[in-house]
């Protein structure tokens, strides 16, 4: 009952003209920075933060939250159309989404991404509203061993993402290896930085993803005879068949994304990887993945949006950051004189419920905005490729430079771009490398933290229930193909 | 109208300081003639970035500088990239200011490849961050002595700390030196992550700045057992100092300040000192300090440089890397 | 044709093996174990060994399977030219400014490599360089480098 009255009050607050404007400004800005590689929601929020000082904190948080989940919608556009992931969390979308675009189904991919994002965003807001306090407390049960087990589960996907198992493992390990560049968090000592200060922070996800996917794709396309411009972009609104194939991936993606998003140390990127793997593992036609499977767009896109909503759970219910971006929003709360803590839901109920209500409204705005935009932007593919790729290269340079305002990152972009081209040429999958880089840092830190905690005993991974359960899942994921084969052969023998 | 009167008041209140540093001229003779670049050697959204953006906003709002100021984040390597940027481009151009902090001083101690603070001319310290010992709200210890006694009763390294950065690690090493107890240390990315681990009960304690913990302190999810200061903290009068509790730990605080390139001429250095004096005297800055539970500590010019020399020695000692 | 494409694959695999080797050599000079837990060098060492093993295995497997996919990869000339132009564009960002350097890079790609008519090439390159500068520099406040002529 109180949820209804609280929410009604929230809507009353969120529907004032000013807050509606803030909500729209937020999702619009988020959409734009999400689509641009290198610039993410964090930069946009930091940029707007000083402008909101002295204003109403509720409006400011509505604006910032809008930027955050709006960016998850925006990242899809560039991923699908030009294979340049606008956000790290849209890497998985670019695999099947871009293939769909090349096949003349860009509109369909963008349409289902927008609808999936809307459903996931709304479900995540519902979850945030109804379950935030108990979920946030449950998330606290994740210590280093639990994160380690979760990452191991994620790593079982290395071989599954690409075509060849051996090549997938090799590029995945390469990604893990790249993750060790820079200052070692546990000892503070620099590794593999070659005395270069710009390597002390390691290799950025954005640099690697834009290089492997964006530059790699361009180089590999210019090597082939120029394809005719794509005139067909497909229907934006899904047909019955498309909807039937997408609805379950959207629901599964929402659930995975929300839960992974709630965990403070993992975010939208890992959520979208997990959603992709799950879809590929349970698909009836896994060989279609990587060649334009709609499930490979619907699942990860739903997942990264749900993760953005999930990350708000620990922020609002516990006052601890659920991701890099929510950490900045928390910083903003402090600037407004609100001290985030476990009592935010009670002490600042009006603010929390108004923000929640604005998230429902913002997701509707994004859906309304994205469906026509999808058709419009898909027309970009009609531009002949020789006119299209030089601006893509310039955009990649601008985006990668902006992520840390560093020209050295542009050189890394070039180097990894060449590697990405060679990999694409010889069918070495790029996604495991990005996955390795994303998971590598948490993998190493959680392993070392866990063993420090247990005084060197690996028992800590098996005696803690959540960790043990996740490791069993990982083992099952590895063994599943063999078990399937065994079952089938025994069935065949019986028949 | 209101704005102008306020800034006039500000100028009046700041002038005694300016007079101290430059007998004769109130402000020195140098004034910026073109756009000023404000370098932030950290990524957007962090503590150093927020401080820089607040200072920037105050300078703009109060019209303290006749030219416009462009913010420029040069993140990477714990401030090393930003300092390197200053060195490589600006050597002596006083149309550049940079925000610096304890981390920019610690990074080169740990990584000799990084540029040190000798590359800039320290202008003014604006605030100090304090370090407190936190445990979970339902922990059995009510003060630092009980905590230390319990840790001593267990085998070494049985009590685990979560840290959110090198400065937290150094605070623990101050504590270890004073108590003789060895702790287990798990290092995380940020104070927020360390706090999450404490709330989840995966570690027994945290050493952190009040900022990240204050909401949890107020709701009693965590409690503070002591602070590394000579006197109690006015914002948290109930938290005793370590010395009060018989733990002979030195004063441990992290500084945050402003600097200009090393080759800045004296009159330009005086100009910037004057500007920062005005900034820290504004109500907006005082409010910022209050929200951040930080200590007001304006230390300008030569005094700031001497302060930094002392801090450098202290940090090197804590990190086990004495100057060679 | 087949030989050339395979050579590219062997080159890529060798790069991976060399990186793995470098990681091993560097890692053994770092502390491997510290008290209870692995130290800085442990996982890099493991990754290096695994990368060498997996890359070599992938190459051997590929050689034996007689996979034809490499043959479809096409000529390398144009991609190499694009890489060179991109490198030149990146090198120009600092001295000549972002806008000018990207304009010249796009113009080179359009008119020299793609042999498109000059007028549309100039229009598209200058237009897009301006749009990027407007969005990133003016709106998003990114300090993209400025050339000696002030833009």
Task: Provide a brief overview of the structure.
The complex is a heterotrimer of chains A (495), B (324) and C (151). Chain A is an all-alpha fold and 495 residues long.
Describe this structure in words.
The complex is a heterotrimer of chains A (495), B (324) and C (151). Chain A is 74% helix and 1% strand. Chain A is built from 21 helices and two strands. In chain A, a hairpin with a 6-residue loop joins strand 1 and strand 2. The mean pLDDT of chain A is 90. Chain B has a six-stranded mixed β-sheet. Chain B has a five-stranded mixed β-sheet with strand order 7-6-8-5-9, sandwiched between helices. In chain B, helix 2 links the parallel strand 1 and strand 2. The termini of chain B are far apart. Chain C is an all-alpha fold and 151 residues long. Chain C folds into two domains: 72 residues; 63 residues, no CATH class. Chain C has a two-stranded antiparallel sheet with strand order 1-2. In chain C, strand 1 and strand 2 form a beta hairpin. The longest helix of chain C is centred in the first third of the chain and has 26 residues. The radius of gyration of chain C is 23 Å and the shape is flat. At the A-C interface, helix 3, helix 9, helix 10, helix 17 and helix 18 of A face helix 1, strand 2, helix 2, helix 3 and helix 4 of C.
Q: Largest sheet of chain A, order of strands side by side?
A: 1-2
The CATH topology annotation of the largest domain in chain B reads as: D-Maltodextrin-Binding Protein, domain 2
Radius of gyration of chain A: 22 Å
Roughly what is the average pLDDT of chain A, rounded to an integer? 90
**Helicity range of chain B:** 40-55%
Q: Given the structure, what is the number of helices of chain B? A: 11
CATH class of the largest domain in chain B: Alpha Beta
| Percentage of β-strand residues of chain B | 15-25%
Gyration radius over CA of chain B: 21 Å
- N→C terminal distance of chain A: 58 Å
The major β-sheet of chain B equals: 6 strands, mixed
The name of the CATH architecture of the largest domain in chain B is 3-Layer(aba) Sandwich
How many DSSP E strands of chain A? 2
Total of domains of chain A: 1
CA-CA gap between termini of chain B: 57 Å
Furnish the topology, listing elements before pairings.
The complex is a heterotrimer of chains A (495), B (324) and C (151).
Chain A: H1 2-14, H2 17-35, H3 41-52, H4 57-82, H5 91-102, H6 106-139, H7 144-155, H8 158-161, H9 165-178, E1 182-183, E2 190-191, H10 205-222, H11 240-262, H12 268-282, H13 295-318, H14 324-335, H15 344-347, H16 349-378, H17 385-404, H18 407-425, H19 431-453, H20 460-463, H21 465-494
Chain B: H1 2-21, E1 36-40, H2 47-61, E2 69-73, H3 80-89, E3 96-101, H4 102-110, E4 120-130, E5 132-136, H5 144-153, E6 160-163, H6 166-179, E7 184-187, H7 191-199, E8 205-208, H8 210-218, E9 222-227, E10 253-261, H9 266-281, H10 283-291, E11 295-300, H11 301-318
Parallel strand pairs in B: 1-2, 1-3, 6-7, 6-8
Antiparallel strand pairs in B: 3-10, 4-10, 4-11, 5-8, 5-9
Chain C: H1 2-27, E1 33-34, E2 37-38, H2 42-65, H3 77-96, H4 98-113, H5 118-139
Antiparallel strand pairs in C: 1-2
């Amino acid at each position: 009952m109180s949820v209804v009255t609280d929410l009604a009050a929230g809507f009353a607050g969120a529907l004032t003209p000013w807050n509606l404007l803030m909500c729209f400004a937020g999702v619009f800005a988020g959409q734009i920075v999400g689509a641009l590689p290198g610039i993410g929601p964090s930069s946009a929020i930091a940029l707007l933060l000083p402008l909101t000082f002295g204003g109403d904190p509720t409006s400011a948080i509505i604006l910032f939250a809008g930027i955050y989940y709006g960016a998850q919608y925006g990242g899809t556009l560039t991923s699908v159309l030009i294979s340049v992931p606008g956000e790290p969390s849209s890497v998985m979308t670019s695999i099947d989404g871009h293939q769909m675009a090349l096949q003349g189904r860009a509109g369909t991919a963008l349409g289902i991404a927008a609808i999936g994002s809307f459903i996931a965003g709304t479900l995540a807001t519902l979850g945030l509203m109804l379950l935030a306090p108990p979920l946030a407390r449950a998330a606290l049960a994740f210590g280093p061993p639990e994160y380690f087990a979760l990452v191991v589960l994620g790593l079982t996907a290395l071989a599954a993402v690409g075509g060849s198992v051996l090549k997938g493992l090799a590029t995945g390990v390469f990604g893990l290896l790249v993750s060790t560049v820079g200052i070692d968090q546990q000892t503070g000592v620099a590794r593999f930085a070659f005395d270069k200060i710009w390597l002390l922070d390691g290799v950025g996800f954005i640099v690697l993803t834009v290089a492997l996917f964006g530059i790699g794709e361009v180089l590999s396309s210019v090597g082939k005879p120029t394809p005719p411009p794509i005139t067909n972009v497909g229907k934006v609104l899904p047909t019955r068949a498309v909807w039937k194939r997408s609805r379950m991936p959207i629901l599964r993606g929402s659930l995975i994304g929300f839960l992974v998003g709630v965990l403070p140390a993992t975010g939208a990127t890992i959520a979208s990887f997990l959603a992709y793997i799950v879809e590929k593992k349970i698909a009836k036609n896994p060989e279609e993945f990587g060649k334009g499977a709609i499930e490979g767009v619907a699942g990860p896109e739903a997942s990264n949006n749900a993760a953005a909503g999930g990350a708000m759970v620990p922020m609002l219910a516990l006052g601890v950051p659920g991701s890099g971006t929510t950490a900045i929003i928390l910083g903003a709360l402090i600037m407004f004189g609100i001290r985030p803590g476990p009592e935010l839901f009670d002490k600042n109920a009006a603010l929390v419920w108004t923000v929640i209500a604005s998230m429902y409204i913002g997701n509707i705005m994004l859906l309304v905005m994205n469906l026509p935009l999808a058709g419009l932007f898909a027309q970009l593919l009609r531009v002949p490729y020789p006119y299209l790729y030089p601006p893509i290269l310039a955009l990649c340079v601008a985006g990668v430079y902006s992520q840390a305002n560093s020209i050295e990152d542009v050189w890394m972009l070039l180097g990894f771009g060449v590697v990405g081209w060679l990999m694409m040429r010889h069918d070495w999958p790029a996604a495991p490398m990005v996955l390795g880089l994303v998971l590598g840092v948490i993998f190493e830190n959680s392993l070392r933290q866990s063993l420090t905690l247990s005084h060197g005993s690996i028992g800590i991974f098996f005696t803690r229930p959540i960790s043990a359960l996740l490791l069993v899942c990982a083992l099952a994921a590895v063994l599943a193909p063999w078990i399937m084969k065994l079952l089938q052969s025994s069935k065949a023998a019986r028949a | 109208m209101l704005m102008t009167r306020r800034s006039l008041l500000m100028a009046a209140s700041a002038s005694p300081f300016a007079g101290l540093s430059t007998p004769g001229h109130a402000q020195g003779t140098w004034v910026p003639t073109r756009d000023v670049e404000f370098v932030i050697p950290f990524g957007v959204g962090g503590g150093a970035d927020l401080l820089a953006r607040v200072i920037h906003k105050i300078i703009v709002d109060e019209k303290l500088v006749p030219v416009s100021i462009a913010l420029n984040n040069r993140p990477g390597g714990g401030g090393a990239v930003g300092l390197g940027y200053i060195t490589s481009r600006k050597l002596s151009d006083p149309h550049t200011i940079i925000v610096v902090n304890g981390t920019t001083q610690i990074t080169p101690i740990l990584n000799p490849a990084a540029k040190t603070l000798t590359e800039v001319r320290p202008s003014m310290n604006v605030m100090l961050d304090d370090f407190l010992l936190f445990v979970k709200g339902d922990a059995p210890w009510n003060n630092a002595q009980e905590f230390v006694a319990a840790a001593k009763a267990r085998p070494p390294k049985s009590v685990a700390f979560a840290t959110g950065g090198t400065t937290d690690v150094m605070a623990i090493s101050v504590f270890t030196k004073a108590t003789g107890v060895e702790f287990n240390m798990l290092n995380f990315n940020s104070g927020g992550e360390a706090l999450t681990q404490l709330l989840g009960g995966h570690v027994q304690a945290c050493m952190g700045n009040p900022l990240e913990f204050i909401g949890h302190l107020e709701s009693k999810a965590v409690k503070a057992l002591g602070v590394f200061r000579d006197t109690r903290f006015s914002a948290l009068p109930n938290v005793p100092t370590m010395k009060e509790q018989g733990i002979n730990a030195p004063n441990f605080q992290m500084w945050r300040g402003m600097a200009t390139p090393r080759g800045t001429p004296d009159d330009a250095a005086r100009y910037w000192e004057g500007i920062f004096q005005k900034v820290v005297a504004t109500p907006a800055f005082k409010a910022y300090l209050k929200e951040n539970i930080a200590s007001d500590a304006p230390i300008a010019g030569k005094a700031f440089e001497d302060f930094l020399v002392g801090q450098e020695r202290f940090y090197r000692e804590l990190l086990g890397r004495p100057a060679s | 044709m087949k030989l050339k494409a395979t050579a590219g694959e062997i080159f890529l695999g060798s790069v991976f093996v060399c990186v793995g080797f470098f990681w091993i050599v560097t890692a053994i000079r770092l502390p491997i174990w510290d008290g209870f837990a692995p130290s800085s060098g442990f996982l890099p060492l493991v990754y290096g060994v695994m990368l060498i093993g997996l890359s070599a295995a992938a190459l051997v497997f590929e050689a034996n399977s007689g996979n034809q996919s490499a043959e479809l990869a096409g000529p390398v000339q144009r991609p190499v030219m694009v890489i060179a132009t991109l490198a030149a564009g990146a090198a120009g960002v600092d001295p000549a400014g972002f806008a000018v350097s990207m304009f010249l890079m796009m113009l080179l790609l359009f008119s020299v490599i793609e042999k498109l008519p000059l007028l549309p090439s100039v229009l598209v390159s200058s237009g897009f360089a301006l749009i990027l500068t407007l969005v990133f520099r003016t709106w998003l406040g990114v300090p993209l480098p400025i050339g000696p002529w002030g833009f």
